[in-house]
Structure formats: C-alpha cells, structure tokens
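Student: Please help interpret what follows.
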Amino acid sequence: MSISPIAAPVGPTSLTSAAPTRAPQQTMDSTVFMSLLVTQLKNQDPSSPMDTNAMISQTTQLSMMEKLTQLATDSASGLSVQQRSEAAALLGRSVTYLTAGGASGSGTVGSVSYSGSVPSLSVGGASIPLTAITGITGA
C-alpha cells in the first residue's frame, strides 16, 4: 500500500501570520472618541447605566479638543498670512540676513516668492527665506 504525501498548505496557516487588514490609528480624534462612546453605551450593563455626569464630561472634553485643534489651525493660518504680508512689505528695502552657512549678507529685496511654507526674498540674486532676515537697513 502506497501513501501519498500531503502538500504543504498554501497561504497563512494561523491567525497571526496574516497581514493586518488595516493600519492601527495612532492619534485620537473626534471620530475615535465618538466610536468609543457609542461602543461604551451599547455594551453598558442595563442594571448599572453610565453616569450622565461622566457622559457630559466626556462630551465636553471632546468639544474642547475640537476647539483647541481649530484654534491651532487658525493660528497657523494667521502666521502664514502675517509672514506673507511682512515679506511683501520688504520689497525695495535694504536688508541684512544670514545664509545657511552662517555668513551674513545684505542687499535690496527685489522680489518675493510664496512657493514654500515660508516666503523667500530675492536679494541680489540669492533666494533668502524670510526667517533668515536679521535686520532692515533701508527706509
């Protein structure tokens, strides 16, 4: 009597060897918070429901987190607008600046570029970021 060998299984052989179906989320946002709150409410013990004060406290914390996030976004937008305005105000003015190597330079601002996250000024043919300006020497 001959015995035929069993072929090796194809694909993952256990639950842990398969790749995860989704990447774990590393930040807590309002979607995660609401999902946790709804899950908590669905699975609570009917004989001992969630304290309403605790639920109101959690909802208040969510609201505060959303407002702080919006405040941070608005502050970043305001800084960007202020930098653009300041860069435009330097057109035609003489400035001093530090290069990436640490050397100082000076010249007249000929143009402004808003292509990066920080406006850059064209001074004597060199592109100088607004943050590298150390002084204004001309009126």
Observations:
- Strands lie at 94-98, 104-113, 120-123, 126-129, 133-136.
- The helical segments are 30-42, 52-89.
- The radius of gyration is 30 Å.
- The chain has a mean pLDDT of 81.
